[in-house]
Amino acid sequence: MKMFRSRSWFGGGWGRPKNPHSLEHLKYLYNVLSRNQTVSEHNRELLVETLRSIAEILIWGDQNDSSVFDFFLEKNMLSFFLRIMRQRSGGSNYVCVQLLQTLNILFENIRNETSLYYLLSNNHVNSIIVHKFDFSNEEVMAYYISFLKTLSLKLNAHTIHFFYNEHTNDFPLYTEAIKFFNHPETMVRIAVRTLTLNVYKVDDSSMLAFIRDRTAAPYFSNIAWFIGKHIQELDMCVRNEADHHSQNRLADLVAEHLDHLHYINDILCLNITDLNHVLTDHLLHKLLIPLYIYSLASHRRKSSLPEGVNQAVAKILTKTSSGPDSPRVQDPLSGRVSCVVALFLLSQVFLILSHSPLVQSLAWIILKTDSTVLDKGVNTLLEHYETEKKLLEDSLSDEASAVNSSSKEALLEDLINITDEEKEKLAKNPSENVAMHKPFLETVYSALDCSENDYGALFALCLLYAMANNKGITSDVIEQVLKPKKSFMSKSSSKDIKYSYNVYLVEKLLLIISLACQPTCRIRLVTLEISLKLLLQLVICDGKNILLEPHRAVIETAKSQSMALLRNFYKSEEIFLDMFEHEYCDMSKSSLNVEWLCMDSAILLPPAGTPLTGIDFIKRLPCGESEKARRAIRLFFLMRNTVLTLSGEIETQLPLTNPQSCVQIEQALDLSISRYNSDLIACTVLYKDGMKMRRFLVIDVLQLILVEPDNKRLGWGVAKLVGFLQDIEVTGDKDDSRCLHITIHRPISGATTNRVPLLSAKFLFDDNIRCMAAKQRLTKGRMKARQKKMQHIARLLEIPGQSGPPSPAFTGQGLYTCRATGRNLRENRQLFTAGRAPGFAAPKRESSPGVLHRADESRRHRDGDSPHRLSNLRKELSASPSNNNVKKETRSREASSSRTKSREGSPKMPRPRSEEIPLELIKKASHSIIDMAPKINILPRPQSVKTESEPCTSGLINDNAQSKESGVLKEATIISEETSFIGDRQSDKRGEEREAV
Q: Cα angle vertex 915, ends 910, 919, to 5°?
């Protein structure tokens, strides 16, 4: 009997309901909990399964049966949960993990507000929150903090009263959570930040007052202290990691600092005035000013380098400039960090935080703090800022200050009426004076020295750029320092405007740019790019370039130096063209994002010169000739874009390939025009998967096009595959002379070097002649396409001897347009007519007395009895009176065509009858040339006069090539599958000569 009773209690008894989702099953589980209120090693498995089943039934009841929650509340089942948690018997932690998991799942999935209110009533949830769990158990800690975060997601104006007791001033959900703000586990820290933000979002004045009065000051003070301690650890990591061996640790520290700043920004963006005031005050007094900003001026306190600091890092950190004002590494015990670390952290602050009272005060302190108040402490510094801020606001709003403002305007007008040299001198002096008497700004300017390396300059540039682009900083703080200044020439008119900018800073930037264009510089591309971005912001105002002439000359000189540097790497090899286009595509994808740059911890380490460190190319020094060429190419693009921007021009020469001039897939092509039909060859494409397709191969100026005839329009085709000629690889087939193996690589479109082929297939032609012609044209097309682009690059670099029109690769008017024009001058006949297109029959052309076909000539060489028969025929033809008439008429036509053309508007003369076929030739005797010419079954290419000099097979061909082609078209006997010529004239001529031999 005891055995059956235990089976009934522990899940296998007769009273267990069959339906797990029912009120009866919940009652059964309630009985299980009632009989097992004491946790032991024997029943802990049963309790875990019971808790899991209870959560499942409650979630089902929330959506289907409200009586489930009624029974749960009636029996006060949460009290069982508390009773189980408070036990210290064996296996209690094991059951607590399941209990917290059950509560987490339950609150996460409840959708009915009434059910949620039932669960939160009786204050049992708060009792669970304040329970002293064993947090040394990682699972207990994880489920507990997850449970608290889930509860915070349910907070609103109605549910806040279940957690915050206004009468007792008790808010356990918040107060217990913030205790884990600095927990070693990242997941726990993130959950706490999420929970606090969810609490701050609730619009409840009493709750926010409790947070402000009871918890804000200690909590935000702890935040500042934790961040400061974290920064000290980051600084020590930078000092001791010059060899890039512990990048992961440094990356984790930088990521943690970014998380802190984003969390602070999230709090400030909630716009809770009281909280923002408390948080800003703690950040300024305990973190940002004493640790971040004062580290910029720490070089004034002379101290030796701490023992154990890596000497390589120390040398770089201390060598920002050779003068006595160079920033130096400080002893960590002094509460300061190195200058470069401070610049880096301040850059992150201004890139992430945009709360105006905070960033405005920081920017003012950095740019305008006088050396007289530097040593008086943080409080005095902030009081001085508040005083200056109040005076500025009063001068702008108080009408009593009109006299002072008018005197300033009068002084401005007096300054305008001076010479240009005095203006330039006055434009220089204020900036120099500012740099001389402002210790923090002086340190930033000193870090811009790149005489040996750009380690500190990069962080100084990031800080200046971040301040110049922070939306929370008003223009009156950064005007004339980081932004151009506008001033009106007179009070009455607003048309005459005088522009000025920070000449001292611009000259610093120009020096960096000039040094970057030197062959042996140690300035990274990222430093140059951010310098150019900052320069454009300083000298462009209202869309106008206000750069002074001497500074413009420096920019032009730097551009010329970048071009000269790239000329050293300009080669006719294929790798240079691919590298040029690759770098342009990579740079055109997106511009430099300074915020992302400051997220990279790798820039905190000394500039690396090897790709083995894994640092991006633009963030390190080049290694080897290949990377030096890449750097020269990017340098050229950056300088060219800067010059175009300053001049207000638009790029018209890059990229090398204009997409608008290229044929696209599924584009309809008029195959009757000479651009396409002159190189039209039929073939069968055999894919690797066994698929076969009949296509026509078109070789354009830049592209290889596979065309399918258009069924709707006669003489038109549809492009089914398009690839660039410069990206093809062609190899012959050893086993079949009619086949070619063609691989078309995808065009360069990004930073990836693994280019997947666009097409890799076997091309089967009708005969080996067509195969040879296709291979020759593809090879020539690839070579010419690359040559044209290289010539275009040479013109961009202004290499001597490369003057001429723009590259056809860009303009879209290339080789084939020129060839078609020259061909039309020689022959006014198209190969395709309106009724002839791929797949249609073409009439067969017989021999005519005007042209002696090569095929006929070769056959006569084979069949003739005498090797001198051709010369005899030539003599016979020249002796014929009718042939003499033809020659005379031909010469008369040539003479008339060489005369000056008639004026426009003159009537066109009808075609002379001398061009018709003479009747004497038709009635000629059977032993004449016409009767001897056999009928050929292939469609020959139309004969025309060639302008370039090439060897001819016989003198008769040269003689007859001067006359117009004439003949009689007879009915076709054989239908050809191909409608284009086979090979170009040179290849046809050589092939027929071989056949004749």
A: 125
